[in-house]
Amino acid sequence: MYPWCSFVFVILLHTAVENKGSPPTWPYGEYTLLKPRTGCPAGWDDKGYIYQDTIDKNPSNNRSQTLHIDGKVACSHVKRHFCSKTNTDGEVWPSGQYCVYRHEKEKLHRMRPGSILMYNEKNNNKDEYKLTKFRVYIKKIKRSFIYMKLYFACQTSGDKKIPISLPITKPFYLLPHGSRDCQQVKWMVATTEWIKYHTNNYIKKGGKQTYGKVPYHELGDRKHQGITMFYCYYESCKYTLIDTRGVFQSPGFPGEYPDGQLCSWRIMVPVNHTVQVRFTNVSLNDNDTLRYSERYSTRSNGSFRSWHTIPLNLSVPFTLLSDSDVLFVFSSDESKTSSGFRAEYHHGSIPQATTTPTETSTASTASTASTASTATPSETSSIPLTTPHSELIEGLVKQAEKF
């Protein structure tokens, strides 16, 4: 047995069918989101963009190190593309703390309207845009400054740490409200990104720079003019792991995971194989949960049954063993976080049982990938398919000792 195997949990689960509901759809109304490099949701307009000509004198546009937008941040200009929903189908927007772009006259149910004025380069201004479903105004004002007016609709009635349901099939952007922290979305990991626009916006500037409810942003002082806009990039954390071996871990590990996080990992196990899942790190708060279940049927559509929670007081490393697909679900509460967990997994084959005393059993040495483990009768215990559960558990434990 490997020295890291402190002890083995055998997952043999028998009850409780997994509930499956209809996937969420995009909420009601026509609105616009910032476009990621992965593209727009199916059926949305993806032709809109803004080219923003910022201040040319000592230009200082900047951006976060991680930025997934379809666009470019240069020293004296910023170009970004957009995705616009072109129909009004859908349910109302769920409660939370976030914003989207809107058309000037568009009203979204349960969303609060607002706008931001961004004061751009005044000489030989090259601002341009093509936007089909939300509008910007580009106007000359006093002292020949140019401003760009962006319109928003914001949800302000909920807690951003309580995850909402939105489609998870492709990455997307929302805008944070109230703080730079992102609204949690079920089965998605959010990353806070930002762009600093070197404009004539600054704290205590005369005249209104914002109206109504707007996304969270930060203004520079008069010596360091500009406006920093924050963007929440979402990508799915509902993972399916198909490799023979690999690693999975909580979002942000070994740093803190977000409040209100919900993610899952399904390990696909080939027929006549087992999987070992070795947890090397587990540090969760009392109200956080890491649950697991095993697929009940060997059919591809078999359901997961009997959810079990991994105790938080277990000493690491420890190992779980299963002979079918395993699903792990991690959820954090809305109060505080810790460093999370990390786990390694790998497959191993199970030799077929001898069916009659006169037949000779030959184990296959084929593997599902170049890194797969193989087994022969001399290396592992032979486990008949008709073995009672108590004996099967004992046999699987013996097999785990020889992985």
Using the CA coordinates, give the radius of gyration: 27 Å
**Structural class, from secondary structure content?**
mainly beta
Q: Note the gap between the termini.
A: 7 Å
What does the average pLDDT come to? 79
How many helices? The count is 1
Low-confidence stretches: 1-19, 358-403
User: What would the principal axes of the Cα set say about the shape?
Assistant: elongated
Total strands: the figure is: 25
Helix content: under 10%
Strand content: 35-45%
Succession of helices and strands: EEEEEEEEEEEEEEEEEEEEEEEEEH
Summarize the biggest pleated sheet: 10 strands, antiparallel
Total of domains: 2
List keywords for this structure.
403 residues; mainly beta; Jelly Rolls; five-stranded mixed sheet; 1 helix; 25 strands; 36% strand; disordered N terminus; disordered C terminus
Structure description:
The structure is a single chain. This protein is about 5% helix and about 35% strand. The protein is mainly beta and about 400 residues long. It folds into two domains: about 30-235, no CATH class; about 240-350, Spermadhesin, CUB domain (Jelly Rolls). The strands form four sheets. Strands 4, 7, 8, 10, 11, 12, 13, 14, 15 and 16 form a ten-stranded antiparallel β-sheet that branches. A hairpin with a 5-residue loop joins strand 10 and strand 11. It is elongated and about 75 Å long. The chain starts with 7 loop residues before the first strand and ends with a helix. The model is unreliable at about 1-20 and about 360-403 (pLDDT under 50).
